[in-house]
Amino acid sequence: MPKIFTSSTGKAILVGRDKTDNSRLTSRARPYCLFFHASDFSGSHVILKLHKWESATREDILDAACLAAYYSKGRDRKVVLVDYAKKGDVKQIKGSPGLVELLSFKTIKVKNHEIKQRNFIS
Questions:
Q1: φ, ψ dihedrals at 25, nearest 5°
Q2: Mind listing the pLDDT tens digit for each residue in 49-104?
Q3: Strand residues in 1-122 grouped as ranges (E)
Q4: Alpha helix (H) ranges present in 1-122?
């Protein structure tokens, strides 16, 4: 079962707990949801749940990116780059639980103080 958080605008954000959970979480997400993962570190898969007609706000994206940075091996860095993509642009690598290839993505820079400012992280 993933950890469940709520973005500042009320959208659900799901965070995988281990590689099996990551695979399950990513495979079950709808193609229009957003997938997040720290660029250069191993860590949790994070899914920002969206409805087909919804788009993510800048705050939603930053909330989910902060969770991806926090639940990665880069948690204590001053800056963590987080890649994000529509789930439809995420290809799971067969035979390698938790590993994915992003076919098209954007990257957001998350600063350590931004992670600490989020209400959902103690």
A1: -60, -45
A2: 999 999 999 999 999 999 999 999 998 999 999 999 999 999 988 877 778 999 99
A3: 3-6, 12-15, 34-38, 46-48, 79-86, 90-92, 100-102, 106-111
A4: 19-28, 58-70, 112-117
